[in-house]
Amino acid sequence: MGGLCLIAGIWLTRALPFKTAAYDLPEETVYRQYLSYIEGEITDETFAYLADAREALQTSEIDPAKFEAALDRLEAEVTAIGRGGRIADPVRFLDIYGEKAMWLRQRNALIVLALLTVCVSALFSSDRNGDIRRLLHATPQGREVLFWKKTLVALSVTFLVWCSVYGREWLRMRQALGEALWNAPCQSVEMLKGIPLSVGAFVGVFYAVCAVATVLVMSLILFFAERAKSNEKALLFSCVCLVLPAAAVRFGADFLRPWSVLTLLTGESPFLSAHGGWIFAVWCAAALSALLLAKRHYCKTL
């Protein structure tokens, strides 16, 4: 059952959208058109282009007001950055990772959570049938070895789920951001100021956090699956404790946001606030404790 759900999930998520147009504002069109010609390293050619563009406005028959305003803004930014720095259009990044685009990331994270819940919850329920646990208990280290083998299967499923959503998103996003923004420093994007990395390096860290988050959620689901006496109860426990709070955050319960697994799966937890790193550390400790408790209970319970 879990395998069929995994195959269906991979097929259904093959064209999952990851980009919005939340920051692509009409009033920014002229500014972004000028910016697109000078993205990258700021050189003498950058200043020459801006001078030529301003000169062209003097001979143009169109109203130059909004074009001059865009050039004034762009010249101020280029001057502030200086020669040798890099300038890039941050809108493509914000359309994917900005706060206004969070609704789409939360929806995709809910899909990941649903896939993990359905596919991982069934791993321990079959052991309850026909006193299989009693048989395993009579085998030296049989139950412990089987527990870690099941955990390895769960990790494999988690990796496939990560690839089907986050892996595809990473590959498609790499192309959407473009070379100039990918290589630009994080200071090029307002929400990333203070991070001493390039945008591309930050994105790599971001998806690494998402990978860790899927493993943490998998550990929590394994804990519920091991404690439940049937697949139905395992699904029920996971839905009540993980899926429903995540859905509540998706539909507006922001007070649950720091403590919901949805925040983990959107990759925002370590970057949410000054306390985001501590919150992520608490989730890591909780997931590790849940996995060890599940292993202990599985190996000792008759």
Chart the SSEs and their pairings.
Layout: H1 2-12, H2 29-38, E1 40-41, H3 44-58, H4 65-81, E2 86-87, H5 91-97, H6 102-120, H7 132-137, H8 142-183, H9 199-227, H10 231-250, H11 261-265, H12 276-300
Antiparallel strand pairs: 1-2
Helix-strand sequence: HHEHHEHHHHHHHH
Number of helices: 12
Main sheet?
A: 2 strands, antiparallel
Strand content: under 5%
Structural class: mainly alpha
Q: Domains counted in the coordinates: how many? A: 2
Question: Kindly state the mean pLDDT as a whole number?
Answer: 82
* Spatial strand sequence of the major β-sheet: 1-2
Alpha carbon gyration radius: 25 Å
Please state the overall shape, judged from the principal axes of the Cα atoms. elongated
Taking pLDDT < 50 over at least 5 consecutive residues as the criterion, the unreliable ranges are none
Percent helix among the residues?
55-70%
First-residue to last-residue Cα separation: 26 Å
The total count of strands amounts to 2
